[in-house]
């Protein structure tokens, strides 16, 4: 046989000198997606806000100012007779039912690192320092108060914990179950596959919202909010994993016939190694996209449940149960600030959807 | 032939894929992908398996590594120390050990390398799976292997998509060599590559064979590729072997009409060539419902009644030739070899030219 002397063009070290990494590459293409970047920043800010809720909020979430129910957002003044000045507020007095007037006799400057009610910073360090605050009798209701006179801004921060982390925990459990069951069904096939897929079909055929209602309704009212929160996550994930498992199964079935999986088999690799090293990494891109797009669903579900009173119970806050105090049209017209939790839900969901879109585009191999 | 020459002996290998229908998945028939294949492979030789798509050649290869479990038959592997292992009945531990000795190179280099793994991880995977060496030792071995197949070791941390088709196939070869195998099953290793790169990869394979004393089982659909690299060639048609012969014999003195047709289908380098192809009429029969007699009978230009009713066994032509053929008329037919075909083509050209000259007059 004639020896061919041409050598293949050897790749030179890539021009920028940076070693290629799959995820770094994808991250940089996500960064080019403007809307997704903005959404990611908003989501990060939201998570930061709810994690630091105790510090950022001026009050305790359950602290009721009985004489200041349905109080509109406190006006913050930055000008006085002498021109610009440090922001200050006036104390307010009730002049009728849910009617308030500023008492302009004394200015109460907004104080930074104000000492107020005690809380645990990051759930660990007990402290009394809040980012902002004003002296009594003035109040700092940044987004007004609800029917019990509780500060809505504070409650939004604390309620956000439920909404933001429930979605996260829900999708985490869903993904684990979906990957596990879909992976097993797809990889082993045969009767295992048939059995698991019939179970999936049964779960998919249950009308999920009614199941949620039924399950939430039979839960005893006395349950602690933390436990209730946990149960809601379980219920949501129980419904959610089936659809995910079905898609993962399909993906695994197509990946397992790829030559590189056959190659790993021919090397004597164990099933576990093949699934872990070769099949799951390919499925993760899908799971990530699916997760970012599914979180809004969980947030909405929880809001829906809490709105009709079956989710997080008073006095604990969640965006859904805060919205439920804005049910009547007279309240909405008179006290529009009650709708702010709805706005938060809207912002969170929109951001997750935009981020999900961006992630999907970034991970789509055809999009290069 | 001395017995210790043989490294692999395949006997009556069968792989049927059941066709399931209906709610209860009742088996209504079988696709006979490999239907009673027997051959032996000698130590250090290259044996080619050719045939068109769907003739069962890749399935045969997969059965040898037990990547798919055969329906029946045996594959005996003769270790250098004389031990004989039946691959198909071996337990998992033995099989795992055996995987060090038999490796595979795949057809499509871009799908046989995991896009998420770096070249270092891909080539080191056999060593990791078989728990050989420390991390540093494995890395050193990867460097060695990459250099051996003509890549630079600094490319170790790259990912498959950064390489060309030929380079990817070299990575695949490096992976197959990692465990110092005795036999490599090459499943159409160059058919997905550019023609110019094919030669380089084939050269590399034959260099490696000389250097490491490898035995190749070379699967291809192109007789032209197999001719260069093989000592012996097996021709398969519809799950069965129709002819086994030394490479030269097969090319110059084919004894089976199907082999003749395959030879006639080798493309010519000369664009003006008017090679007359020995054409087979019709298409390959349904492998779930093969014809009654000889599989080729419905398409064979030489077929008689006996061909349509009786299946020809694979028999040896004479005692010392090592030429096996499955045709009732192997001794009677005078078939064209590759050179004959070229000559015939040239003669035909002359006849055509003469005709043209006459027409012009």
Question: Can you summarize this structure?
Answer:
Chain A has about 375 residues and is of the alpha+beta class.
What order do the helices and strands come in, and which of them pair?
The complex is a heterodimer of chains A (368) and B (361).
Chain A lengths: L21 H10 L2 H18 L1 H4 L20 E4 L2 E14 L2 E11 L1 E11 L3 E9 L18 H37 L1 H15 L3 H11 L6 H31 L3 H8 L4 H37 L11 H5 L5 H6 L5 H24 L5
Antiparallel strand pairs in A: 1-2, 2-3, 4-5
Helix pairs in contact in A: 1-12, 2-4, 2-12, 4-5, 4-7, 4-9, 4-12, 5-7, 6-7, 7-9, 8-9, 9-12
Chain B lengths: L5 E16 L4 E17 L3 E5 L6 H8 L7 E7 L5 E3 L5 H7 L3 E4 L3 H4 L6 H11 L5 H14 L16 H13 L5 E5 L7 H18 L2 E6 L2 H7 L2 E6 L2 E7 H6 L4 H8 L40 H5 L5 E2 L7 E2 L12 H23 L1
Parallel strand pairs in B: 3-8, 3-9, 6-7, 7-8
Antiparallel strand pairs in B: 1-2, 1-4, 4-5, 9-10, 10-12, 11-12
Distance between the termini of chain B: 62 Å
How many DSSP-defined strands of chain B? 12
Number of helices of chain B: 12
Number of strand segments of chain A: 5
CATH homologous superfamily of the largest domain in chain A, by name?
MetI-like
Strand order of the largest sheet of chain A: 1-2-3
Q: Count structural domains of chain A.
A: 2
Report the C-alpha radius of gyration of chain B, rounded.
Answer: 23 Å
General form of chain B:
globular
- Tell me the greatest interface: A-B, 32 and 47 residues
How many domains comprise the coordinates of chain B?
2
């Amino acid at each position: 046989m004639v020896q061919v002397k041409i050598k293949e063009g050897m790749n030179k070290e890539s021009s920028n000198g940076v070693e290629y990494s799959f995820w770094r590459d994808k991250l940089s293409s996500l960064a080019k997606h403007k809307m997704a970047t903005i959404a990611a920043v908003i989501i990060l800010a939201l998570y930061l806000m709810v994690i630091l809720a105790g510090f950022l909020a001026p009050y305790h979430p359950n602290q009721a100012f009985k004489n200041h129910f349905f109080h509109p957002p406190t006006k913050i003044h930055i000008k006085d007779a002498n021109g610009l000045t440090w922001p200050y507020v006036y104390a307010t007095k009730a002049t009728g039912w849910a009617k308030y007037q500023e008492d302009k006799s004394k200015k109460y400057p907004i104080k930074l690192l104000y000492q107020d009610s005690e809380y645990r910073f990051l759930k660990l360090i007990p402290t009394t320092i809040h980012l902002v605050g004003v002296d009594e009798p003035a109040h700092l209701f940044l987004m007004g108060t609800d029917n019990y006179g509780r500060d809505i801004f504070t409650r939004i921060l604390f309620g956000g914990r439920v909404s933001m982390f429930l979605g996260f925990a829900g999708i985490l459990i869903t993904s684990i179950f979906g990957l596990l069951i879909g992976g097993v069904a797809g990889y082993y096939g045969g009767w295992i596959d048939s059995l698991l897929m019939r179970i999936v079909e049964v779960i998919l055929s249950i009308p999920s919202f009614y199941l949620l209602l039924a399950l939430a309704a039979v839960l005893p009212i006395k349950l602690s909010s933390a436990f209730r929160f946990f149960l809601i996550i379980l219920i949501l994930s129980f419904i959610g994993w089936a659809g995910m498992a079905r898609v993962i199964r399909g993906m695994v079935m197509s990946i397992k016939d790829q030559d590189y999986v056959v190659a790993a088999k021919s090397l004597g690799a164990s099933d576990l190694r093949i699934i872990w090293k070769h099949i799951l990494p390919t499925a993760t891109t899908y799971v990530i996209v699916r997760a970012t797009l599914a979180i809004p669903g969980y947030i909405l579900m929880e809001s829906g449940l809490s709105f009709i009173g079956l989710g997080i119970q008073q006095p604990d806050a969640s965006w859904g149960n805060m919205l439920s105090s804005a049910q009547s049209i007279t309240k909405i017209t008179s006290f529009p600030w009650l709708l702010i939790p709805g706005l938060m839900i809207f912002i969170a969901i929109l951001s997750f959807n935009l981020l999900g879109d961006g992630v999907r585009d970034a991970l789509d191999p055809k999009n290069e | 032939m001395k017995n210790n020459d043989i490294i692999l002996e395949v006997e009556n290998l069968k792989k049927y894929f059941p066709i399931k229908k209906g709610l209860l998945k009742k088996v209504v028939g079988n696709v006979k992908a490999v239907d009673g294949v027997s051959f032996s492979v000698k130590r250090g030789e290259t044996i080619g398996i050719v045939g068109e798509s769907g003739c069962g050649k890749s399935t045969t290869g997969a059965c040898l590594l037990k990547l798919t479990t055969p329906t029946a038959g045996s594959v005996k592997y003769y270790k250098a120390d004389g031990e004989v292992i039946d691959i198909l009945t071996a337990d998992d531990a033995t099989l795992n050990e055996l995987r060090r000795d038999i490796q595979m190179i795949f057809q499509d280099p871009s799908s046989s390398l995991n896009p998420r793994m770096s070249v270092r991880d891909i080539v080191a995977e056999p060593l990791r799976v078989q728990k050989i060496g420390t991390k540093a030792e494995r890395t050193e071995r990867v460097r060695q292997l990459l250099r051996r197949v003509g890549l630079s070791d600094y490319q170790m941390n790259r990912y498959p998509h950064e390489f060309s088709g030929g380079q990817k196939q070299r990575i695949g070869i490096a992976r197959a060599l990692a465990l110092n195998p005795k036999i490599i099953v090459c499943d159409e290793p160059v058919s997905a590559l550019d023609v110019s790169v094919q030669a380089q990869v084939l050269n590399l394979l034959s260099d490696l064979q000389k250097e490491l004393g490898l035995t190749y089982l070379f699967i291809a659909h192109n007789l032209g590729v197999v001719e260069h690299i093989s000592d012996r060639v097996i021709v398969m048609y519809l799950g069965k072997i129709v002819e086994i012969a030394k490479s030269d014999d097969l090319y110059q003195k084919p004894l089976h009409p199907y082999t003749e047709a395959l030879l006639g289908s080798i493309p010519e380098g000369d664009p003006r060539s008017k090679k007359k192809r020995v054409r087979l009429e019709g298409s390959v029969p349904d492998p779930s419902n093969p014809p009654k007699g000889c599989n080729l009978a419905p398409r064979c230009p030489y077929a008689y009644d006996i061909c349509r009713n009786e299946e020809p066994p694979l028999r040896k032509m004479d005692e010392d030739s090592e030429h096996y053929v499955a045709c009732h008329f192997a001794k009677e037919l005078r078939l064209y070899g590759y050179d004959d075909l070229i000559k015939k083509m040239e003669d035909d050209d002359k006849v055509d030219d003469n005709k043209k000259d006459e027409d012009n007059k």
